[in-house]
Each structure stands twice: as structure tokens, then as C-alpha cells.
């Protein structure tokens, strides 16, 4: 009987240990990965850690700014909005002379995010120095990296300590059992402090057990919730065959979305442009930097085009296989023209501000979508059923006339609703608004096959 319960405790403490290690590893991994991921997602298109490119190298840039006499915190303002920083800090103003290229704005990045990025950058070894035998890079210590990293980490440390205590107690209990058995054989109790603690823990085993159970469950639940809120879909960012930047096309060059996604107002799908659409411009535009040329060469390869000399088509084409970014399950029906034309929604409501998307497209998390001016604020993660439903309950149907090939049906409904308005439909309208929901936007069959 005693042996079996001690066995049970041993298994329990092993299990606890496993859970802690898993949670710890996940926690540390997360803290380290953040700066890395943010840098690659947002900065790497223009910046390298140790080499100047479109933007200057970022290694130890905080120290550089501090030494150069920049105002406190102005480097963070720079990343959020470089124009504002340049206007308010003379040092930041000098930075703008680096090149004709301008830095992108990142209003969504918090100070912690920027520190995480720059910590990560500062922790990178200098590849050139490494090749030369560490002549220069080794001389630069990464002091800031260590202290700031813990801003997230201390939670894990505290949890770890709590766990260590609990495990100590649990394993103490096991030893207590053993020594109780030994006692009966005649061994003396050595009465140390730890022994006292173990006795205490054993006496209060119900509470100790219960507390540890609660902590374990809370941790498991919170890590699951964490996983859920990060979302398998939100921030989904598949790799693409060509590093196509929306910022250059829809932003800098102000090309209309419909030029490339040309079925978006007429059909279910928006469509991804064929290589011929790219060639309309890229027959002439072959890129200025080697990086651009490398990417644009892939368009030529796909189109079977040889740009040398007068330029000619070989006839040997091969499709560019873009990976789908926004993916709904097969059992869901979603229609673009319904939302863009009938509903009068802007693309950025669901896809984010593409004019600032330097990397290839990703699924924007709802928090980022909510920050965009003019967007309806929603709470459920992007592309989930909750997201669709919530907006249908929020968005009032547009009342203007609709101008498409198939506008008769909706124009008719809208007209009737407007004409009779609340008097006729009032009792169906809980909140006095005619939302998509009232039109049937909550009916399962509207969205599900
Ligand atoms: C679209 C290109 C682009 C992107 C993306 C970009 N930057 Fe920049 N960045 C620049 C350019 C260009 C400069 C130089 C200033 C100028 O010419 O206006 C610069 C300057 C800087 C500076 C000052 C460097 C110095 O030597 O003083 C910092 C710090 C900086 N960027 C941080 C970031 C961070 C952090 C990110 C990612 C969140 C980022 N940048 C993304 C283009 C970019
Ligand atoms: C020059 C052509 C071009 C223009 C202009 C353009 N796009 Fe795109 N778009 C593409 C290409 C190519 C892809 C596939 C690569 C990628 O995912 O980044 C794409 C992908 C997308 C995706 C993700 C597709 C998926 O698989 O889920 C969205 C959303 C999108 N574009 C929205 C927009 C919006 C909104 C605008 C206008 C502000 C716009 N695009 C303007 C060419 C263009
Ligand atoms: C309406 C004209 C137009 C169309 C259509 C167009 N592009 Fe571009 N693209 C440009 C311009 C302008 C630039 C900027 C070149 C520069 O900065 O010198 C550019 C730049 C690029 C770059 C390099 C960007 C960088 O800075 O890294 C890539 C890659 C690219 N385009 C891919 C595509 C692809 C793929 C398509 C088709 C889906 C496409 N483009 C369609 C006009 C166009
Ligand atoms: C109400 C939200 C919403 C709005 C507004 C919206 N989209 Fe989408 N978009 C989606 C969803 C959801 C998908 C995924 C569809 C699927 O997998 O069937 C998608 C997919 C796409 C795709 C991938 C290719 C395709 O056809 O499925 C492109 C490109 C795209 N959207 C472009 C646009 C453009 C351009 C606009 C603005 C004119 C726009 N979207 C407006 C929700 C929206
Ligand atoms: C940002 C708000 C918004 C989001 C998000 C959204 N919708 Fe809609 N939806 C609308 C609007 C607006 C209409 C058009 C209502 C009208 O007829 O004026 C609409 C209409 C519809 C309709 C037609 C309803 C009817 O009664 O005819 C369907 C089906 C639909 N949406 C499916 C979806 C699905 C599936 C998603 C999620 C993948 C989604 N919607 C996400 C706003 C949204
Ligand atoms: C406005 C559009 C919309 C309406 C209305 C709607 N759904 Fe959904 N539903 C979705 C979308 C989008 C998904 C896919 C979500 C995802 O992949 O996370 C989904 C997923 C589901 C799933 C599968 C969940 C899964 O794990 O894949 C079920 C079951 C479901 N819906 C049932 C219903 C029922 C029952 C109703 C009616 C009471 C309903 N839906 C009404 C949009 C809708």
C-alpha cells in the first residue's frame, strides 16, 4: 500500500518535471524567437546586422545613437515614425542623409518589440569578423541583450521557482515515505531543516498536492490559450517563389489592387495575377539592385523571356507557383464581390494595409487589423468563424446603390429595407441597426456548403 502510493508520487513528480521542462523550453524559445522573427519579417528586407544595404547595418545601433547624442527614446520613435523623429531630434535628422531611400514606418511596434529586435541583432556574430578570426566583432560585448531579454523571462523564472518548491515537496514526500519505512526498521531521523520542511509538506500534503495540481493545470491551460491566440492561421506567412513586395507595387508605385487581383469585384475569388501581368511592366523594369534583379530574373524565367539584347521570348514558360496565404476550409463559402461591392468593405479591413507590406503577404492578426484607421474593430482571430460572425453582427449593410453586373438582387433588398426601414422590420432588429446578420449573415447555410 505504502509502496504503491510512493510509486504514484514518483510518477507524479516525474510528470511535473516533464511539464516544467516543456513549458520552460517553450517560454525561452518564445523569448528568443521574437526578435529574430520580427527582424526577419519587418526589417531584413532593407537592413542587415553587420553590413550596410538599403538601410544601414543595425549592429549596436542603440549605442551608436546614444554616443552620437540622440535624445532618449528617439530611436524608438524613429522606428515607429522616422519623420516625426527626424523633426524632433537633430541626431535623427542626420540619419536621414544615409541615402535617397526612406525607412518604412512601423507604428505597430512597441518599445519592447524594438528592443527585442535590436537585442537579437546585437547578439549576432559578425560574419566578416568571424572569417578574419574574430578581429573586430569579438570586441563588442552584448550587454543589453542579456538584461532586457528577461522582461518576459522573469515570469518563467518565478513559475519555475514555484514548481521547484512543489517538486521538492513532492519528492520530499516520497523520501518521507521511505524514511517512514526505514523508521520502522529502526533508522534515526536526522531532523534537518529540509527534513522539517518535508514533514510539513507531508502533513499538508492535500494542500501541496492541490496547489501543484492547480498550478500545473493553469500553466497547461494558459499555454494552450497562448497557442490559440497566436493562432495557426493568424500571421500565417508561407514562403513564396518570388519575394514580391506589395509596398513597392501598391504603395510606392500606387498600382491599384484590381490591376492584379482583377476578379475581386466580380467573383468569389480575387485571383492572383499571371506572369503576363508582371511582364507588362517588368519587360522594362529589371531592377536596380542585385537583389531586385535576382527576383525579377525569376519573372523572366517563368515567362520564358531573355532580356539580353532586344529581348525575346523563348516560348518555354513555367508557372510561378504562389502559395495560398488566406485559406478557408472547403466547407466554407466566401465571396469577394459580396463583401467588396455589396458590402462596401475595403480590402484593408480583412487583409491589412498592403501599401506598407514589404514582405510577401501574410494573414494579418486581428490586433494589427484593428489598428488600421477606418476598420471595424473586431475581437476574434482573423479567418475564424467567430471573426465572420462578429463582423456580420456589427456591420450595418451599406445603403448606397450597388453597381455590378448582378446588382439587382441586393439593390432590391437594400431599397426595401431602406424604404420600410425600422417600421416594418423593427421587431427583427434587436439593436435598431440593419446589420448583415439581419439579412441572413448568421445562417449556417449561407457560409457552409
Ligand atoms: C523599406 C526599407 C526599410 C525597412 C523595411 C526598415 N528600414 Fe530602417 N532604415 C531604412 C533606411 C533607408 C534607413 C536610413 C535612413 C534614411 O536614409 O532615411 C534606415 C535607418 C534605420 C535606423 C537608423 C540607423 C543608423 O545607422 O542610425 C534604425 C535604427 C532602423 N532603420 C531600424 C529599423 C528597424 C528596427 C526596422 C524593422 C522594424 C527597419 N529599420 C526597417 C530603411 C528601412
Ligand atoms: C502588381 C500586382 C499586385 C498588386 C497591385 C496587388 N497585389 Fe496582392 N498579390 C500579388 C501577388 C503576386 C500575390 C502573391 C504573393 C504574396 O502572397 O505576397 C498577392 C497576394 C495578395 C494577397 C494574399 C493572397 C492569398 O494567397 O491569400 C492579398 C490579400 C492581396 N494580395 C491583397 C492585395 C491588395 C489589398 C492590394 C491593393 C492594396 C494588392 N493586393 C495589390 C500581386 C499584386
Ligand atoms: C504596373 C507595373 C508593375 C507590375 C504589373 C508589376 N510590377 Fe513589380 N515592380 C514595378 C516597379 C515600378 C518596381 C520598382 C523597381 C525599382 O525600384 O527599380 C517593381 C519591383 C518589383 C520587384 C523588386 C522589388 C524590390 O524592391 O525588392 C519584384 C520582385 C517585383 N516587382 C515582382 C513583380 C511580380 C512578381 C509581378 C507580377 C505579379 C509584378 N512585379 C508586377 C512595377 C510593376
Ligand atoms: C470581408 C473580408 C475580406 C475583404 C473585405 C477582402 N477580402 Fe480578400 N480574402 C478574404 C478571405 C476570407 C479570403 C480567403 C478566401 C478563401 O480561401 O476562399 C481572401 C482571399 C484573398 C486573396 C487570395 C486569392 C483568392 O482569390 O482567394 C486575394 C488576392 C484577396 N483576398 C484580395 C483582396 C482584395 C484585393 C480585396 C479588396 C478589393 C479583398 N481581398 C477584400 C477576405 C476578404
Ligand atoms: C469586416 C466585416 C465582415 C467580415 C469579417 C466578414 N463579412 Fe461576410 N459580409 C459582410 C458584409 C458587409 C456583407 C454584405 C451585406 C449586404 O448584403 O449588404 C456580408 C455578406 C456575407 C454573405 C452573404 C449574406 C447574405 O445574407 O446574403 C456571406 C455568405 C458572407 N458574408 C460570408 C462571410 C464569411 C464566410 C466570412 C469569414 C470568412 C465573412 N463573411 C466575413 C461583412 C463581413
Ligand atoms: C458568416 C459565415 C459563417 C456562418 C453564418 C456560419 N459559419 Fe461555421 N464556419 C465559418 C468559417 C469561416 C469556418 C472555418 C473556421 C476555421 O477554419 O477556423 C467555420 C467552421 C465551422 C465548423 C467547423 C469547425 C472546424 O473546426 O473546422 C462547424 C462545425 C461550423 N462552422 C458550424 C456552423 C453552424 C452550425 C452554423 C450555423 C449556426 C455556422 N457554422 C454558421 C463561417 C460561418
What do you see in this structure?
The protein is an all-alpha fold. It is built from 20 helices and two strands. The chain has a two-stranded antiparallel ribbon. Strand 1 and strand 2 form a beta hairpin. 18% of the residues are buried. The N terminus is likely disordered. The site of one heme C (HEC) has 26 residues, from helix 1, helix 3 and helix 6.
SSE arrangement:
Blueprint: H1 2-43, H2 61-67, H3 74-80, H4 82-88, H5 90-95, H6 111-122, H7 127-131, H8 143-185, H9 193-203, H10 205-230, H11 246-252, H12 257-260, H13 275-282, H14 290-303, E1 305-306, E2 312-313, H15 336-342, H16 347-351, H17 366-370, H18 385-394, H19 408-425, H20 444-447
Antiparallel strand pairs: 1-2
Helix pairs in contact: 1-6, 1-8, 3-4, 6-8, 8-9, 8-10, 9-10, 13-14
The structure holds heme C (6 copies).
Would you summarize the structure shown here?
The chain is built from 20 helices and two strands.
Helical fraction equals 55-70%
User: Could you give the distance between the termini?
Assistant: 58 Å
**Poorly predicted runs:** 1-6, 23-32, 133-153, 228-232
Counted beta strands = 2
User: Could you give a short account of the major beta sheet?
Assistant: 2 strands, antiparallel
Element order: H for helix, E for strand: HHHHHHHHHHHHHHEEHHHHHH
For the largest sheet, list the strands in their spatial order.
Answer: 1-2
State the helix count. 20
Bound molecules: heme C
Instruction: Round the mean pLDDT to the nearest integer and report it.
Output: 77
Supply the key terms.
449 residues; mainly alpha; 20 helices; single chain; two-stranded antiparallel ribbon; binds heme C
